[in-house]
Amino acid sequence: MQRADASVRGTDFVPRWRYGDYLEDEVRRALAHGKARGHDVQSVPLCADALVPEASGVTVVCGDDARPVDAAVLAIGSLPPHPLAGVSAAARASGRYAVDPWLLLTNEPAPSAEVIVIGMGLTAIDVILELAARWPDTRFTALSRHGHWPEPHLPTMAIPSNDGSELVEGLLEDADLWRWMHLLRETMGLEDDWRSVFDSLRPHAALLWAQLPSAQRARFLRHAHWAWERARHRMPVPVVMAVAELERSGRLTHRRGRVRSVDVDADGATLALTLQAPGPGAPDQLHAGLVVQATGMAFDARHTTHPLLRQMVLNRHVVPDPLGLGLVATPDCRLCHPGGAWPHLFALGSLLRGTLWESTAMPEIRQQARAVVDQLLAD
After folding, report:
1. Contacts of 333 (CB under 8 A, 6+ apart)
2. The whole model's pTM is what?
3. How far apart are CA 236 and CA 14, in angstroms?
């Protein structure tokens, strides 16, 4: 990225569109480099209708064309999002309820005076900042069950007093979630800043996740997942300042509660959202011209509408993670069927979350890609 803009530093958090441009440029360079070295690189702008894995390889089906290949890698990114439970068919058909926030931003929607954003993570923040810049007169309300923004990054990188190995060894002694949380809080209290301790665990996340039994993983998802995400996926300092300015100006408020329903108002021009705050009180009803579902990435392969993945699940070529975290796989990224692991079918990224947990950010995905490439070249 510094080739195009020398002012960009290695620690900067650049806009997603600039990072996307950087990735496209890197892919072009890699493809050109491969062709120059005699590799046959083909980019086929078609969707795969089916994959049929076998012990000797994989058959890729595109329309009437069935092509045998030595190996296949599923790198399809996040799964298509589903509307939240309680969102009526009328609300979805109105065009005022956006299930996919990125599709909304791409389609240049008409301005709305009041916008409700469901979610308070980084996706929600991206949506709010983008729409706030486009629509200077719009007011935003952000909702989440816990009512907290992500934690902020420090202006400079904090280095822990050790490499975290002692903490990891302590955690591995007993795979109990509540004991882990107690030990983690205790260790963070000994450091100048808690972020350094948290970041020292990142290289060990897959090992720690693998030690948790299924019941403990389910407990983590119910009770501590939101806190992990808030601490793990933090806001850069400029983003913190931009959010704070929107709140100071009165254009942005946030509320805590669970969304019970979203339906079209009687006038047909707005949506009515029912929000149940914690406690015994009656639910509140909020009204907006646009409601955006920005609850983050979708991982659940058990009920996905993704055509290729649905075909593979129905044909039992792959096994959905029982907790809705992608697909069952081995630590070396090989996808599994009910009888074991396929030798030539791999996955990258969010599909591996049930196996590796930390599997959505570029540092981890780069490591996965290198591991898969090493296996492909070895084979």
Report:
1. 346, 347, 348, 352, 368, 371, 372, 375
2. 0.89
3. 10
